[in-house]
Amino acid sequence: MENIFNFSNELQGKIALVTGGTKGTGKAIADRLVEAGATVIITARNPPAEEKPDQVFISADLSTVEGTRKVIDKTLQKFGKLDILINNLGGSETKGGGFTVLTDEDWIQSLQTNLLSPVRLDRGFLPQMIERKTGVIIHIASIQAKLPLYDSTLPYAAAKAGLLNYSKSLSNEVAPKGIRVLTVSPGWIMTSASEKMMERIAESSNSTKEQAAKSVMDALGGIPSGRPAQPEEVAELVGFLVSPRAGYLTGTEFVIDGGTIPTI
């Protein structure tokens, strides 16, 4: 069977949603999908620093039931469908110091943001994908699902491990119905959120940001490539995975970590 793909405009006519799409990796992914011809919706609590005519912004707190419902309703009302869902929203705002300093509120907030938000969005958008027998869902997880940093991001790591398991299970259920579900697990990405994490670790350990960064590198066992990833590198992988070129890929985790995870 011979397939002919148009790489330059391969997502023309597709409607895509990128959560957490106003900065960092989410912004890079949104820009990459626009370049491929998609109409892109981005969500976050706060508007992007620069509005773009080829992107639609929906303000919402996706850690809440109300926030996810708002995004689902507004998207389907405006476009009538969603072809590509990138569950990129995630992050850790919990204190460093291990399990003893974490409260129920810390755990609940991390689970709501990193696990339940994508679960709710999938549940809201999947019915129309199944009806049309087409669609792609990408869950942005983390290598911390398998390589947790217990001193600084324990709830985040646990939530991402849950997301990884859920993503695989969902793919098995909906692949026969024409929907592809994939997971992308980045290692350390150089974003503004990474900078803030270094500040929190430094504060809790009474050290400098440079020492905090080294402690993260040491905890990860080092990065063979010698540096964190750039957001655009992750976006390029996502751009391929949602394209027709990846039509036979589903139920798989793609790790992009510069070689950080030391096992196969």
Automatic annotation (TrEMBL):
The terms under GO molecular function for this entry are: oxidoreductase activity, acting on the CH-OH group of donors, NAD or NADP as acceptor
Among its keywords, does the record have Transit peptide? no
Top-level taxon of the source organism: Bacteria
Q: Which UniProt keywords apply?
A: Oxidoreductase
| PANTHER family per the UniProt record, alphabetical | 3-OXOACYL-[ACYL-CARRIER-PROTEIN] REDUCTASE (PTHR42760:SF133), SHORT-CHAIN DEHYDROGENASES/REDUCTASES FAMILY MEMBER (PTHR42760)
Family designation: Belongs to the short-chain dehydrogenases/reductases (SDR) family.
Give the protein name, as stated in the record.
Answer: SDR family oxidoreductase
Q: Which organism is it from?
A: Chryseobacterium kwangjuense
